[in-house]
Structure formats: structure tokens, C-alpha cells
């Protein structure tokens, strides 16, 4: 460093001050400018760590994926299909007919180098979903770089990369602004779910697939499929083929092959399927094909606890489930059990007396029997919280308790040493149309849970799209964008979450418009006004997507 | 299957697809009730759906989904109301600042995007009728070219006194002609409030110099725009106010687009002009209180008995205005009510149901078929205090076929 004269020192001083100012502006810029427009990080959900610059790169016409250094062989094509989908969504909103060969080639990305360390493609609870994304790659500036432990981490990386891409209306090519990007990312919780309910309304396969696609965009990873309930039984059960006589109609049914198709479609997108068989309540539809499952013709719920056949059927269903649903957990329900039909029906009431059980003990007995059967089929069990509230200490010790009734439950579950999934209905029920996206965003699963070993027992959370007023016409606009708000709460590290929901309004509006551009009917963010409810509201008036 | 054209064959494939169903026992596709002998052709040649991408931008995948669904109901014209007061989303290479009037840089269509829509539609047998609504409904044009406004404080209609206005219209239609190949172009002409012309000094002066009152200036504007479109090889469609105000001055091949109400089509054809029917009391999809039964029963040839006049009604169109419609709710607002109108436009008059309720089951079935194809068609639903007929959510659990 040469010796500076007075004038030079003043200039250099100004230079350093200017740099300091620019640096501070950049820092403030990253944290503060989450609005619409050209500045600010617009990734949803927000990654664990993000840094970016002020340059830009183009995505080459023949942008390809390269994985020579990768241990993972992609025999099942998960990575290849994921890359095709990446290209399709990035190019889907506009015709990309610009010629990148006419641009400065040092600024054109030729491809993406992917390094995946694990050779396995098993999707399961608790796998490593982390990734590291560098655009451009530090050693190959005309390539982007993606590293992950598993192919599913890589899929998340592709998702993030797709959100960095945008169409340039001047050059008519895809570009990535604000490079260089250095992104390290992994989810806060391993269980990030969405429940769909195909009993209250049948959902055709293309609709379920559209929902699965949209889940992947928000990095949700569990589709909790509440398949059957009181109103209808739409799923084929080969062991007991009359069960699906309880469907609404012959065409509103899923074959086992359809179910396998859903599981496979989800798996390719890094999404597990948690199948639910809700017992003993919410099961009236089972008796359509097998009336002996009802306590009586006039009293049809819950399932007849006194009948051995009931447990044979449960065993058959879980056996058939185990051939298709490979997620480590199965959900056995157990919520909202009104036992009066047991005491009112003579043969059941007799059985209770013979076994010295009151209603409450019979309920416990039923749940535990069902648990035993599921355990024999190799599953771990999730049950709704009433089972814990009523007889928590009797549950199989590895039971995951699914909180839904309200706040304050998760802390008691983990204090008792059990795992928990959070879905408190006051904040995370999508069918509650009066719950705002801000409330979805601010619902913290670890509220009042401070001990680290207890925090670990909260495996994650789930937003619930109950189906009473939701069919193929309105499912997506009821799910989105509010599910996205919860998706960030479940993915992003606690200290990177906004302290006030309104701070992320612009970024969420942008994500909502991105969903629309991908053919997902996400509703406007909308205010809660006398004319609209926050859930499923139509736009009130003409305007830009980004402002509604 | 036989057809004169490949587009007839596409309709035949559509019908065949509706004969097929999945057999849950054998797990194969079957066709019941054979042998089938079907002869089919549409009653009207113009069976349209209007979409409005000015009040809300509609991304390409959504427009494609709409086009797919139109084909399922054998609709064959996508009337694209591209620009209006609120936004100007389309690229116009001749006047590149026009799309500064878009809501945002990303809520725009390049010419290549427009060509993609035309191509996607054509493959499905659907024509695209592009609309350039002038001189009203054009405030957004001035964002990029403020001289098109009468003044900064009075921004509609387009300045009739400015030659530049007609240069721009010419440039737009020239660019249109490279992409929109349908025989017709729609030049709008509806809801023109001329007060900004009389209130703005330089325009008012021009009117005096040309011995025109407001009404004559409106006529002048429309006819000038027509001349320009004719020079580009188009035939013209105009909204009905042009006919109502100066019908005998319109280019004689003008197709009058009825929207204000019933009783207009008969006057148009009596005057020897062609007509498209879209009476708002029955065929406006943004009117959420109009039931599917009303859509079904709206007869375009009402009170038109002479055969040569009947021929002048080339068809009809349901209109999905975009004030409260974006990507989240467009399909559930269009369907199933557009399907009711689609049958009115396709099926021969004597095969239509005399009472709409007779087709409830078949329409419900078609609605469920749309759902199975990934189209978010709404339940048929009753008009109750809790719901409106358009865009209603299902009220309670139940079978698709009964809702």
C-alpha cells in the first residue's frame, strides 16, 4: 500500500465511507426491502441463510443439469423429472424466445452442477432435506452449483432456484438477478403438513396432483390424507371389498392403484403421504357395506367395540395400507368420539358390563387395540389429541399426538415425553375462513416450550383443509395463500421469521402471484372486511396481483 | 368417425371422450350403451367466451386452462378483451410505450405470448377474437402516451382531435394482424362518455371546426377506427351502442354485439346487419346472481322469425368480465354456467330442453366431468341466501353429482 498524500487520503476516506454506506444499505436492503419491485429477497419460504449481490446472469437456452461428481445415480429419475419440472415452471408464464447466444457469454449460465452425497432415494420421515445453492458456482462461473445430502434436498434447491429466475421482457430470456447468490438451507421442522379430506367431498386425481404440485412450491413435505369419514368411504380395500360401497357414487372412488399413483406422484416431489384411518368415531360410512360394524341400524357411530369383526376389518385395512402407504407413520384418528350408541345399544352395553368398562374405558380400549394392530403392521402411530387428553399415559409410548383443539396442548404433550404435531384449530384450520394469513404466519408451534429436549419432541405442524365446503372448485383458493404462511413458520429458522406478519406482506403477495403463474388458483391476500372473509376471498376490484 | 375438417374431427373426439368411462371392476376404459350413431354439427357458428385481461392480468397457464375447458363444451371463439381503462398488458411493437400501462412489468403479454395463445387455441379448434375497445375504455393507453388523453385531468375517451390517436390505432391493428388471424376484430365502442371532449378546450375547438357535436364526434371516431381495421383486412364487430346511435352509418358488414339487454338482436337483423348475442341480464358471467337455468334458457332468436333474419344472428357469447375475477376464481365463475349457454348455442332448437330443470342431471354430470379433468367448475347450486348461483362453494358434504 503506497503512502497517501493529503488529497488522496481525503478521497480514499470518502471512498471508504461510501463503501461503508453501500455495505450498510446492502445489509438493510436484504433485511428490510421485502416488498414488490426489483429489490429484496423474494424467496418463499425464507431460507436459513441467504446472501446475494447486485449482478445478474442469464439462463442459457440449453440450460442443462450435470451430475458427474454425484454419488447419487438417479435410477428412478427423480432428479431428472425434478429438473424438467423446474424448466417447465420457469418457462411457463411467457414464451422464452430470446437468443442467449447473442448475449455476453460470460454472463450466460450453461447449466447446473448437482452433487448429491447419498446414493439412496428413500423418502422417509427425518431424512436430510438440506441443500446449498450457489449462483454462480465459484469455480465455474457459467454454471450454478447445487449440493445436497439427498435427492430430496436437491429438489428443494431446484425449487429455490426456480424462484430466483424471472423472465426479462427486453431480452426475452430467463435471468437471475442479484447474483452472486449463496444459499444454505434446511427446514426447521421435519414434519410440514397439509391435510386434505376426501370423505366430505371426493377430490379427483388431477386435483390432488395439483395440490401436491403446489405443496412442493412451498416446501411442505407431508400430505395427510384423511381418506374416509362419516359421509363417505371412497377408497378400495381389497381385504374388505364392500367398504367402498360407502362412496358417494361408483365414480367417486379411488382404486388402490389410484392411491399408489398419489403416493408415487408425491414421492417424486419429496412429499410423504400420511394415511389416516379415523377410528372409532368418524366411521359411519364403513357400515354401508358391512352393517354389522354399526352398533345398530339406528345408532351408527362409533364402530362397534364389542364386535371382533370390527378389529378384523381394521386389521385388513391396515394390511392393505401397508402395501401402498410407506410413510413410517399411520394416523389412527380417535377424535370426537360420542360413545352414546355403545351404551344405548343392548348388545354393546352388555359387552361393556362383561368387560367391566365404562364408556370412557371402552374408548381407550378401542384406541389401544387399533394401535396394537398398526404396530404389528410396522407403523408408528399418530392419534388426535383427545386420546392423549383422556388417557395419555396409556398410549403406546411412541405415539405422536396430533394437537388440534387449541393452544396449550403441545406443551403438555412434550412435558409427558411424547412427540407432537401442531394443528391448533384457532390458527391452522384452513376451513375456518375467518382466520387471516397473518394468524397463520404467527402461530408458533413451540409457544411456551423452552426446554430443548422438549422442543425436539415437536416434530412439526400441519394446516388442515377439512372438506365440508371444499370440492374441486374451491380447494386451491382455500388452501393458498394461507398455507404458505404456515409453510414458512415450519421451514424458516425461528430467528429469521418476521416478528410482525405485515413485514412479509409483499413477499407473500409475490409468492401468491408466482403460484398463479404456475396455474395454482391461490386467492388474494385480502383484508378481513365485511365484504370478504380472509379465506377463499375473491378479488374485490381490478388491480395488480401484487397489491391484492 | 368422419368429418369435413379436422376441427369437426376434434369435436367428434370430444364427444367420444364423453362416452368413455372407467370400469372399476375390470380397471379398463369402457363405452356403454353401444352401438352409438351420432351425427352432429353446431346450430351457431360463433359460440364465444369473453375473458378480460385488463381488470386482472391472467397468466398464460390460466388462459390455457380456460381454452382447454372451452373445447370440452365445444365453444369455439375466445373473445379476448385485452386492454381497458385499468391496464394495458399487451406488447405493441409499433408503439412500445403502450404496455407501460400494465399493472406491473411482469403482468404483461409479449406478442410471442399472444401468438402462443392463438396457436394453443387453434389446435383445439378455437378462434381468438381480439378486441381493441375505442374510444372509451382506453384510459390506460395514456400511461405511455399522455397525448392520447384529452388532458391530464380528463383522460377518457381517446382524444378524437389528435391525428396521433388514429396513428396509434393503425399501429395496433397492424401488429394485431400479424398474430390475430380470425376474420373479425372487435373495436368496442361501448359506454363512451364524451364530456372530456367538450370540457377540454383544444378538443372542443376541434369539434366546432368540424361542425360536430359530441354525438357526431363519437360516430366519427368509431367509423374512422372501422376504416382502419378494414384496411388491415378485418371484418368488424362493435358493441351495440354504435348501432343504437348510428346504425345506418356503420360499415354494412359490421357485426353488432348486443349486450345491453333483450330486444336488440331483432332490431339489428331487421336492419340487415349481423348480430352476436350477449344480453347482460342472462349471459354475463360476472353477474353472480344469474342462474345456470337462466343461462340455458336465453334464446338468441327470441322474436326473430324470418329465416333470412335468423341467419344474421351468427351466434352468441358469455362474458367473463374481470373486475372480481383473477387466477384464483376465474374457472369457478365461468363453469358450469357457460356450459348451459354452450348447449343453447350448439344444440338444435328442437332438441333443447323446454324447461331447464330437465337437464339438471346431465349438466351436473358434465360439471363433475370438468372437475375430473382438473377444471374448477363450481357446483350447480341453488340461489339461496347463503350462496349466489355464480361462483358458489359447496354448502355441505355430498356427492359431486348432487351438488
UniProtKB/TrEMBL annotation, chain A:
Biological process according to GO: carbohydrate metabolic process; glycosaminoglycan metabolic process; N-glycan processing
InterPro entries membership: Beta_hexosaminidase_sua/sub (IPR025705), GH (IPR017853), Glyco_hydro_20_cat (IPR015883), Hex-like_dom2 (IPR029018), HEX_eukaryotic_N (IPR029019)
One Pfam family named in its UniProt record: Glyco_hydro_20
GO CC, one annotated term: membrane
Active-site residue list: 336 (proton donor)
Enzyme class: hydrolase
Protein name: Beta-hexosaminidase
Naturally occurring in which organism (per UniProt): Citrus sinensis (Sweet orange)
Highest classification ranks of the organism: Eukaryota, Viridiplantae, Streptophyta, Embryophyta, Tracheophyta
From TrEMBL, chain B:
Source taxon at top rank: Eukaryota
Protein name: Beta-hexosaminidase 3
Organism listed in the record: Citrus sinensis (Sweet orange)
Amino acid at each position: 500500500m503506497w503512502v497517501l498524500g493529503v488529497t488522496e487520503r481525503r478521497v480514499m476516506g470518502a471512498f471508504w465511507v461510501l463503501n461503508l454506506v453501500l455495505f450498510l444499505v446492502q445489509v438493510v436492503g436484504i433485511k428490510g426491502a421485502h416488498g414488490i419491485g426489483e429489490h429484496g429477497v423474494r424467496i418463499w419460504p425464507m431460507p436459513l441463510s441467504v446472501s446475494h449481490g447486485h449482478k445478474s446472469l442469464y439462463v442459457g437456452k440449453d440450460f442443462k443439469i450435470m451430475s458427474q461428481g454425484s454419488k447419487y445415480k438417479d435410477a428412478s429419475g427423480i432428479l431428472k423429472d425434478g429438473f424438467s419440472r423446474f424448466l417447465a415452471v420457469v418457462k411457463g408464464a411467457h414464451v422464452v424466445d430470446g437468443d442467449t447466444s447473442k448475449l455476453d457469454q460470460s454472463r450466460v449460465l450453461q447449466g447446473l452442477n448437482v452433487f448429491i452425497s447419498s446414493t439412496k432415494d428413500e423418502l422417509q420421515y427425518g431424512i436430510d432435506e438440506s441443500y446449498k445453492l450457489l449462483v454462480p458456482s465459484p469455480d465455474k462461473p457459467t454454471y450454478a452449483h447445487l449440493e445436497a445430502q439427498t435427492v430430496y434436498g436437491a429438489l428443494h434447491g431446484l425449487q429455490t432456484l426456480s424462484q430466483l429466475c424471472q423472465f426479462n421482457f427486453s431480452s426475452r430470456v430467463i435471468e437471475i438477478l442479484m447474483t452472486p447468490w449463496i444459499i444454505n438451507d434446511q427446514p426447521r421442522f421435519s414434519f410440514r403438513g397439509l391435510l386434505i379430506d376426501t370423505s366430505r367431498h371426493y377430490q379427483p386425481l388431477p386435483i390432488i396432483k395439483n395440490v401436491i404440485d403446489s405443496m412442493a412450491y412451498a416446501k411442505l413435505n407431508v400430505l395427510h390424507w384423511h381418506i374416509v369419514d362419516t359421509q363417505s368411504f371412497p377408497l378400495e380395500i381389497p381385504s374388505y371389498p364392500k367398504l367402498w360401497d360407502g362412496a358417494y357414487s361408483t365414480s367417486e372412488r379411488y382404486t388402490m392403484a389410484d392411491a399408489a399413483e398419489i403416493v408415487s406422484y408425491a414421492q417424486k416431489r419429496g412429499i410423504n403421504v400420511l394415511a389416516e384411518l379415523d377410528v372409532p368415531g368418524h366411521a359411519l360410512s364403513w357400515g354401508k357395506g358391512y352393517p354389522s360394524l354399526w352398533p345398530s341400524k339406528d345408532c351408527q357411530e362409533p364402530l362397534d367395540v364389542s364386535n371382533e369383526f370390527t378389529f378384523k376389518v381394521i386389521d385388513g385395512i391396515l394390511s392393505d395400507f401397508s402395501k401402498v402407504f410407506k410413510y413410517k407413520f399411520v394416523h389412527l384418528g380417535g377424535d370426537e368420539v360420542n360413545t352414546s350408541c355403545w351404551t344405548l345399544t343392548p348388545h354393546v352395553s352388555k359387552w361393556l358390563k362383561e368387560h367391566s368398562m365404562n364408556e370412557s374405558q371402552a374408548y381407550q380400549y378401542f384406541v389401544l387395540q387399533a394401535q396394537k394392530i398398526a404396530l404389528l403392521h410396522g407403523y408408528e402411530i399418530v392419534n388426535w389429541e383427545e386420546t392423549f387428553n383422556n388417557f395419555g399415559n396409556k398410549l403406546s409410548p411412541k405415539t405422536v399426538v396430533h394437537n388440534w383443539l387449541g393452544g396449550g396442548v403441545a406443551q403438555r404433550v412434550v412435558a409427558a415425553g411424547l412427540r407432537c404435531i401442531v394443528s391448533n384449530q384457532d390458527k391452522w384450520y384452513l376451513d375456518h375462513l375467518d382466520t387471516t394469513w397473518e394468524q397463520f404466519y404467527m402461530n408458533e408451534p413451540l409457544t411456551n416450550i423452552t426446554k430443548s429436549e422438549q422442543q425436539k419432541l415437536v416434530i412439526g405442524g400441519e394446516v388442515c383443509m377439512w372438506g365440508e365446503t371444499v370440492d374441486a372448485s374451491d380447494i386451491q383458493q382455500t388452501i393458498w395463500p394461507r398455507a404458505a404462511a404456515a409453510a414458512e413458520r415450519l421451514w424458516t429458522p425461528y430467528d429469521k421469521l418476521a416478528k410482525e406478519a405485515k413485514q412479509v406482506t409483499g413477499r407473500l403477495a409475490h409468492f401468491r402471484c408466482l403460484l398463479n403463474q404456475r396455474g395454482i388458483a391461490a386467492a388474494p391476500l385480502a383484508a378481513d372486511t365485511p365484504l370478504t372473509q380472509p379465506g377463499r376471498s375473491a378479488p374485490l376490484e381490478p388491480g395488480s396481483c401484487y397489491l391484492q | 368417425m368422419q368429418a369435413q375438417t379436422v376441427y369437426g374431427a376434434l369435436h367428434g373426439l370430444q364427444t367420444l371422450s364423453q362416452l368413455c368411462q372407467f370400469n372399476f371392476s375390470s380397471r379398463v376404459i369402457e363405452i356403454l350403451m353401444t352401438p352409438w350413431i351420432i351425427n352432429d354439427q353446431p346450430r351457431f357458428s360463433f359460440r364465444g367466451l369473453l375473458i378480460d385481461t385488463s381488470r386482472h392480468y391472467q397468466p398464460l397457464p390460466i388462459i390455457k386452462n380456460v381454452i382447454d375447458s372451452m373445447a370440452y363444451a365445444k365453444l369455439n371463439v375466445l373473445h379476448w378483451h385485452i386492454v381497458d381503462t385499468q391496464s394495458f398488458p399487451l406488447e405493441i411493437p409499433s408503439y412500445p410505450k403502450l404496455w407501460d400501462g400494465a399493472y406491473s412489468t411482469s403482468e404483461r403479454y409479449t406478442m410471442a405470448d399472444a401468438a402462443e395463445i392463438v396457436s394453443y387455441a387453434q389446435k383445439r379448434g378455437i378462434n381468438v377474437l381480439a378486441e381493441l375497445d375505442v374510444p372509451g375504455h382506453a384510459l390506460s393507453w395514456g400511461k405511455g402516451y399522455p397525448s392520447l388523453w384529452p388532458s391530464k385531468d380528463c383522460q377518457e375517451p381517446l382524444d378524437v382531435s389528435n391525428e396521433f390517436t388514429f396513428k396509434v390505432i393503425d399501429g395496433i391493428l397492424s401488429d394485431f394482424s400479424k398474430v390475430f388471424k380470425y376474420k373479425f376484430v372487435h373495436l368496442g365502442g361501448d359506454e363512451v362518455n364524451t364530456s372530456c371532449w367538450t370540457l377540454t378546450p383544444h378538443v372542443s375547438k376541434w369539434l366546432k371546426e368540424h361542425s360536430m357535436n359530441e354525438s357526431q364526434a363519437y360516430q366519427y371516431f368509431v367509423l374512422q377506427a372501422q376504416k382502419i381495421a378494414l384496411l388491415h383486412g378485418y371484418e368488424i364487430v362493435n358493441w351495440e351502442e354504435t348501432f343504437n346511435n348510428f346504425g345506418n352509418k356503420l360499415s354494412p358488414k359490421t357485426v353488432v354485439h348486443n349486450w345491453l339487454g333483450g330486444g336488440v338482436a331483432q332490431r339489428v337483423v331487421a336492419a340487415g346487419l349481423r348480430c352476436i348475442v350477449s344480453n347482460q341480464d342472462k349471459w354475463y358471467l360476472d353477474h353472480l346472481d344469474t342462474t345456470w337455468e337462466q343461462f340455458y334458457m336465453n334464446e338468441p332468436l327470441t322474436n326473430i322469425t324470418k329465416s333470412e333474419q335468423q341467419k344474421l344472428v351468427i351466434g352468441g357469447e358469455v362474458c367473463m368480465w374481470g373486475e372480481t375475477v383473477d387466477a384464483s376464481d376465474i374457472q369457478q365463475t365461468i363453469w358450469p354456467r357457460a356450459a348451459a349457454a354452450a348447449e343453447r348455442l350448439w344444440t338444435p332448437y328442437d332438441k333443447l330442453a323446454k324447461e331447464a330443470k330437465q337437464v339438471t342431471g346431465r349438466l351436473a354430470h358434465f360439471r363433475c366431468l370438468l372437475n375430473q379433468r382438473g377444471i374448477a367448475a363450481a357446483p350447480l347450486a341453488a340461489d339461496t341466501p347463503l350462496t349466489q348461483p355464480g361462483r358458489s362453494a359447496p354448502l355441505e358434504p355430498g356427492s359431486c353429482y348432487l351438488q
